[in-house]
Design a protein that fits this description.
Number of helices: 13
Strand order of the largest sheet: 4-5-3-6
Oligomer: single chain
Shape: flat
Mean pLDDT: 92
Order of helices and strands: HHEEHHEHHHHEEHEEEEHHHH
Largest sheet: 4 strands, antiparallel
Number of strands: 9
């Protein structure tokens, strides 16, 4: 609501939506050019955002037609951008699979194949996107969806994350690969979050064969596994997923440890925001809201002592202010 365009649309929501309906019915509706920018954290990458009225149309098409049809045949272990799933559910699922592995194999001796698709969005071919939608949607809906994408990304290869239609494409394009891994390769312990996925097995040779087969299947889409981020390593070393490292202990317990880089970044961010509060350029309420949001994320792991240290760090940032108030 801090954007003028969003506030204006919401204020006149009924009139604006009726105007959109008339434009679509008369086939005069034209999406506006998206705003492009670059994200810098956790890694630098291009992104784009669409105008509020275009998001309304895209959300309607996606929620009412595209999403229900595309997700109907997904494997359960496809965890991104779906109702009832998300990062928390993906982490819970990995923890469950690690515990089941320990029980079924009598220990934590095993191997992990962790995969990352190199340049997933920027290397997607638009022809493959159309074929992906065509497997589940009628031709008219496919034309609508692809028209959206072509207007936003007027080239033959590549998309940028940020659009809801691109998100549904991102979780759908590798759906056949999910079924291939689960049903043809027979991977029992498997999970995917967008273009990052893992396989756990007691047989390293099996995972080597899986890596070759997966790369071959991705090649059909003009995609490949990232040569540095795709690797096979011992299960007891821990699995890094979604900002946490999951370690299986000798007793079968799974411990979640937040990425130290995340903690270091948050401490620097809090120090900058504390300075803004002291200068009167940010309210203490806003500071507490931002810190509370990070704490909610950190609490997904085994972070009790870490959060105690972070609370003490925040108190130290405002120590002088507290002393002045006491005086």
């Amino acid at each position: 609501m801090w954007k003028a365009s969003v506030a204006r649309y919401v204020t006149h929501g009924i009139e604006e939506t009726l105007r959109l309906e008339r434009e679509i019915a008369a086939e005069t509706y034209k999406p506006r050019k998206p705003h492009t920018f670059r994200l810098t954290y956790p890694k630098e990458r291009p992104c784009s955002s669409t105008h509020i009225r275009d998001r309304i149309v895209q959300r309607s098409l996606n929620d009412n037609v595209v999403y229900p049809a595309m997700t109907r045949s997904f494997v359960w272990d496809n965890m991104a951008c779906q109702k009832g799933k998300g990062t928390t559910k993906a982490m819970d699922r990995l923890e469950y699979q690690m515990r089941r592995y320990f029980i079924n194999h009598g220990g934590r001796e095993g191997w992990v194949l962790q995969c990352d698709v190199e340049g997933y969005y920027r290397n997607m071919r638009h022809s493959d996107a159309r074929e992906c939608f065509s497997r589940k949607l009628d031709e008219e809906t496919v034309d609508h969806a692809m028209a959206w994408l072509q207007r936003q990304y007027p080239y033959e290869v590549g998309f940028e994350p940020g659009s809801q239609m691109v998100q549904i494409l991102g979780i759908s394009l590798l759906d056949p690969l999910d079924h291939f891994i689960k049903e043809r390769l027979g991977a029992r312990y498997y999970g995917r979050y967008m273009d990052d996925f893992y396989l756990i097995s007691a047989d390293r040779d099996f995972l080597e064969r899986c890596r070759a087969e997966i790369d071959r299947e991705l090649g059909k889409l003009g995609l490949h596994l990232h040569p540095k981020k795709t690797r096979i390593f011992p299960l007891k070393n821990g699995i890094k997923v979604l900002g946490f490292t999951f370690r299986l202990t000798e007793t079968g317990k799974v411990v979640r440890i937040i990425d130290p880089k995340n903690v270091k970044h948050e401490r620097k961010k809090l120090a900058r925001m504390a300075r803004l509060v002291r200068e009167g350029r940010m309210t203490r309420e806003k500071f507490d809201e931002c810190y509370g949001s990070w704490k909610a994320h950190a609490e997904l792991g085994d972070s009790h002592k870490l959060l105690q240290r972070m609370d003490a760090y925040v108190r130290d940032l405002f120590k002088e202010d507290n002393n002045e108030n006491c005086a």
